[in-house]
Design goal:
Blueprint lengths: L3 H25 L9 E13 L2 E13 L5 E12 L5 E8 L1
Antiparallel strand pairs: 1-2, 2-3, 3-4
Protein name: DUF4440 domain-containing protein
Amino acid sequence: MIGAGAVACALVHRDKNEAIRHCQAAISKKLRAPSTAEFTDTIVSRGDSGFGTHYYDVAGTVDAQNGFGAMVRGEYTCELTQRPDGQWLVTSTRVL
C-alpha cells in the first residue's frame, strides 16, 4: 500500500516536470532555431502563494543554433504559476 506522503511526493514531482515542459516550450519560442534546442542543468524550485496556487522558478542551460547555424549556449530562467484549476501561466522568460 502506498502512503499519502508518497502520493503527494509523486504529484509534486509530476508538477515539477510539467513546469519544466512549459518553460522549455516558452524558451524555445524565443530561439532562432527552436528544433535544435537541447536543455541541460535544469533546476526547479516550487513555492505556494496560497489559495491552491503554486509558483515555480525554472533555470538551466540551453544549446541551440544561431542564425549562422553555429551552436551557442545560453542560460535561461522562467517563472510560472499553476492555478488551482490546474492551468499553467508562464509569467516571465529570459535567455542570457
